[in-house]
Amino acid sequence: MAILDKISGFAKNVGNMAGNAVETNKLNSKISAERSAISEVMKQIGEVFYKRYAETGKADKDIAELCAKIDGHNAAINEAKAEIARIEKAAAAASGGMICTVCGKASAPDRKFCAECGGKLEAAAPPAVTSGFVCSSCGKASAPDRKFCAECGGKIIEASSSETPAAAGGLVCPSCGKTNADDKKFCSECGGKLTA
């Protein structure tokens, strides 16, 4: 019987430990919930102080320093948002998409109104090219990373290059896009046959 008493006592201890663990977990959960509530109230206090600082520009020195840090983070957020908008507009322009006239969000080309704010959409303007690269055939400005013109397929050259666009005269090679003198029969770049 002594062995049964030992087993019974052991089972009772295990039961007590399990009950204690459950109770401890409940109390730890309550502590965690209370800490979360305190954090939320602290956040609200901070928001009240920041709002006063933003409205009046006045605060105690230590609070003003913290508010200035928030201002710096807000400025970084605004810069990132502006960069996102620039990237979206460039992507929309490159894909023939549309841009909202109200919020500036990019949208698919088949849309007429913005899904974000309901504003009217306009065709996205192509990004300004300030690279100094042009098509050797039609003279259209191009991005420096392009090899051939999206308009006519001509070779992209640096605007200051000795090659000039066909609009200024000369025969354009149908193979490589190089502009050649009017009296040439073959391209000086690739040897392709020139046609008038």
Can you describe what's shown?
This protein has 196 residues and is mostly helical. The protein has 3 domains: 2-58; 88-123, no CATH class; 128-196, no CATH class. It is built from 2 helices and 8 strands. Strand 4 and strand 5 (141-142) form a beta hairpin. The longest helix has 55 residues, at 2-56. It is elongated and about 120 Å long. It starts with a helix and ends in a 16-residue tail after the last strand.
List the topology elements.
Blueprint: H1 2-56, H2 61-94, E1 98-100, E2 106-107, E3 121-123, E4 133-135, E5 141-142, E6 156-158, E7 171-172, E8 179-180
Antiparallel strand pairs: 1-2, 1-3, 4-5, 4-6, 7-8
Q: Which percent range describes the beta-strand content?
A: 5-15%
What's the total helix number? Answer: 2
Helix content: 40-55%
Q: N-to-C SSE series?
A: HHEEEEEEEE
Coarse morphology: elongated
The profile of the biggest β sheet is:
3 strands, antiparallel
The count of β-strands is 8
Structural class: mainly alpha
Low-confidence region ranges: 162-168
Distance between the termini: 116 Å
Q: How many domains make up the 3D coordinates? A: 3
Radius of gyration: 35 Å
Mean pLDDT across residues: 77
Strand order of the largest sheet: 2-1-3
Brief sketch in words of this structure:
The protein is mainly alpha-helical and 196 residues long. Helices cover 45% and strands 10% of the residues. The chain contains 2 helices and 8 strands; from the N terminus they run ααββββββββ.
